[in-house]
Design goal:
six-stranded antiparallel β-sheet; five-stranded mixed β-sheet; 30% helix; alpha+beta; 4 domains; transmembrane; transmembrane helix; 395 residues; Immunoglobulin-like
Length: 395
């Protein structure tokens, strides 16, 4: 019995010693493995003030090691720490707008020293506040390893979906003139504020107050053919306007004042900042006036001259001066009518002047005003006096 107890004791001691040895070996292996692993760097992005118009704060999520070894430009924006120990690479194609006005991007931290170029992947989230526009700004960052800190800075884009309209539009002082004969090109000047990101206009949608007045309104701008407006510059958005002749002339028949539009076009511009900006929409109003074109004005002039000469003959019994031949009087009236129409158009369209007849501010580029002007010029003083008397009696 004692021999049996001693045998069991030796067996238990041997098993205990074996397990203890295995435990020590595993502990030594795990400890050496842990201490042999390199310490992962911690990336910290500092908050940035954007032109005293707002602030962007950043949060960083480590996604682990990555196999990336290079950061080709322009796909990446690259910067180094001050001691050139690390490179920070921002993937411009990864920029996304997310909820609550935030934006995200993917960044890589690459060791710039040593034979083993280790890379680590991060997701950076920007949280903007304020009224600033999408802009490139210089942002400070820090790489922390154990007790060491490696500072640096990088020029990167920041975004603010809550900002106001990004495009500036040149003020329209007077309605644009659109001929009812053929297609009229119309240029709209779009601007972009300096020290911001480029803007790409990708779509133009047009709605009209008078849909029946148009056969076609077209623009070449599309997703595949965007209009780019660089910071601090302007670009022309081209529209090709094709009116529907008769409805357009009827629309402007009684609107003879030069500052009264015949129709107003509402342009909805879809655009985004480059790179990575979210789609925005901005409405631009364009006022237009329809004109009959040269043929229409010529017919109105001829009709007005004929009626003016006829009225003069009825009032005075002659077409021109005393003993003036009829053909000479007709040709004189025609020349004077053309000159009066030309001067009226030049003064109102290019001279910032107004043509006022009987207290009415008229546009000589319209059919009815051109017709009335031709009557007064060809009819002379007799017709003018008769019309004044007629207005005096009616008033």
């Amino acid at each position: 019995m004692p021999n049996c107890a001693r045998a069991n004791s030796r067996h238990l001691c041997g098993a205990y010693g074996h397990n203890l040895g295995v435990f020590l070996l595993v502990s030594i292996f795990c400890t050496s493995h842990v201490f042999g692993q390199p310490t992962k760097p911690q990336l910290v992005i500092d908050s940035v003030n954007v032109r005293q118009e707002g602030v962007v704060s950043f949060s960083t999520l480590a996604l682990g090691p990555d196999s990336r070894a290079d950061c080709p430009v322009p796909q990446f924006t690259v910067a180094q720490t001050d001691d050139q120990a690390f490179r920070l690479c921002i993937d411009m194609a990864s920029i996304q707008q997310v909820r609550f006005n935030a934006f995200t991007l993917t960044a890589y931290l690459v060791s710039a020293k040593g034979t083993a170029r280790e890379a680590y992947k991060y997701q950076i989230t920007g949280n903007p506040a304020g009224s600033f526009r999408d802009s490139p700004v210089r942002v400070s960052f820090h790489v922390k390893i154990d007790s060491n800190t490696f500072p640096g800075s990088i020029l990167m884009p920041v975004y603010n979906a809550a900002a106001a309209d990004l495009l500036t539009v040149e003020k329209q002082n007077e309605p644009a003139y659109v001929s009812v004969s053929g297609t009229t090109p119309l240029q709209i000047h779009l601007g972009n504020v300096a020290d911001t990101l480029p803007i790409a206009v990708t779509d133009v949608t047009v709605s009209e107050d008078c849909p029946r007045c148009w056969t076609r309104i077209a623009s070449s701008v599309s997703e595949k053919n965007p209009l780019t407006v660089d910071p601090g510059t302007s670009a022309n958005l081209l529209l090709n306007l094709s009116p529907n002749t008769i409805p357009a002339l009827m629309q402007g028949a009684l609107a003879i004042k030069t500052d009264v539009p015949h129709d107003t076009l509402s342009l909805i511009l879809t655009y985004h900042t480059v790179p990575g900006g979210s789609d925005r929409r901005q409405t631009v109003l364009v006022k237009v006036r329809f004109g009959p074109g040269l043929i229409g004005l010529g017919l109105a002039l001829c009709g007005g001259i004929a009626l003016g000469l006829l009225a003069k003959y009825q009032l005075t019994g002659k077409l021109g001066k005393q003993d003036e031949r009829a053909l000479h009087a007709i040709l004189t009236a025609l020349v004077l009518g053309v000159i009066a129409e030309f001067v009226g158009i030049m003064l109102t369209a290019y001279g910032n002047s107004r043509l006022v007849i009987f207290g009415l501010d008229i546009d000589p580029r319209q059919l009815f005003p051109a017709f009335i002007l031709a009557i007064l010029v060809s009819g002379g003083a007799a017709v003018v006096s008769w019309i004044k008397e007629l207005f005096g009696k009616t008033s």
